[in-house]
Amino acid sequence: MKQAIKDIEAKYRKKELPKFNVGDTVNVHYKITEENKTRVQVFSGIVIGEKGTGLRRNFTVRRISYGEGVERVFPINSPAVEKVVVKKHGQTRRAKLYYLREKEGKKATKVKEKVVHKKKKTASA
């Protein structure tokens, strides 16, 4: 039974999944169909959580819009999600950033930025 489910899911799974973590600031390009027109809308914010595995994997993005917190859940394998662009990487100690819901103003969008160190090449003698 499990193998049958895996075979069906493999058919619908996206080939290239975006690489991001909780705490990253992302732009989600989402296809919206209105009557007979299709357009792409960009939702930008902080990833505050991920849930599920495989085809059922979802991620939640939060942003502050006109002083109100707005959260949106995106299925990662949805054909409506065109692409996810990581604007900056965040460093967190939690798997879910639900505490940001209680914050107001600028503190609601603050996550420590991850510092990436590049290795220096050593001269071999």
Write up what this structure looks like:
This protein is mainly beta. The protein has one domain (2-98): SH3 type barrels (Roll), CATH 2.30.30. The protein contains one helix and five strands, in the order H-E-E-E-E-E. It has one helix spanning 2-12, and strands at residues 25-34, 37-51, 58-65, 68-75, 81-88. The protein has a five-stranded antiparallel sheet with strand order 4-3-2-1-5, with no helix packed on it. A hairpin with a 2-residue loop joins strand 1 and strand 2 (37-51).
Keyphrases for this structure?
SH3 type barrels; 39% strand; globular; mainly beta
- Total number of helical segments? 1
What Rg do the Cα atoms give?
A: 18 Å
Question: Which class in CATH terms?
Answer: Mainly Beta
Largest sheet: 5 strands, antiparallel
Shape: globular
Structural class computed from helices and strand pairing: mainly beta
Instruction: Please write the string of helix (H) and strand (E) elements.
Output: HEEEEE
Number of domains: 1
**Based on DSSP secondary structure assignment, what is the total number of beta strands?**
5
Mean pLDDT over all positions: 88
Output the strand order for the largest sheet. 4-3-2-1-5
Low-confidence stretches: none
Q: What is the percent of helical residues? A: under 10%
Looking at the structure, the CATH topology is: SH3 type barrels
Write the layout of secondary structure elements.
Elements: H1 2-12, E1 25-34, E2 37-51, E3 58-65, E4 68-75, E5 81-88
Antiparallel strand pairs: 1-2, 1-5, 2-3, 3-4
